User: Fold Peptide deformylase from Ciceribacter ferrooxidans.
Amino acid sequence: MTIKPLIILPDPLLRQLSKPVERVDSDILKLADDMLETMYDAPGIGLAAIQVGVARRLLVIDVSREDEEKRPLVFINPEILTSSDERSTYEEGCLSIPDYYAEVERPAKVTVRSIDREGKEQTTEAEGLLATCLQHEIDHLNGVLFIDHISRLKREMVIKKFTKAARGKAI
Assistant:
C-alpha cells in the first residue's frame, strides 16, 4: 500500500465533479487500499478519491475510535437515497483543509446506496458520525467542501488564508 499526497485547498481539483467507477477491478481495489493507508496516516476518518487527485466516485471511511479495532468501509459510486428531516451538528474538519474546523449542520440520518469491494450493490443506513462522514465525503465527489456549509464570510476567510499559504509555497 502507498500513502498518497493529499490535495489541499485552494487546488481547483477539489471542485471537480468525480466520474463514476465503471467496474471494480484490481486498480480500483488498490486505490481504495492506498486511500485507507493515506487516511490512517493523516490521521482522518474519511477520504474521497479526489483528495488524492483521482476524480472517481470512490470513498473510504473508518469512524472507529483509536481504542477500537479498525473497521474500514469502502463505498464505490455512493449516492444518498434518503436523508432525515432531523438534523445534527458536528464539528467537521477535512484532510484537504488542514487544521481548520467548523460546526456543520446536516441531516442526522441517511440511506446510501453504493457498490462494495466485491462489486455488489449495498445499502447503508447511517446515523451519527457515520452519517455526517458519508455526507461530507459524498460532497467531495460532487466538488463541494464542508466550508460551503458555513457562512460566506468564514468561508472566504478560510479560502483566502489557504490561497495565501499556497502562494508562499510556490515561491
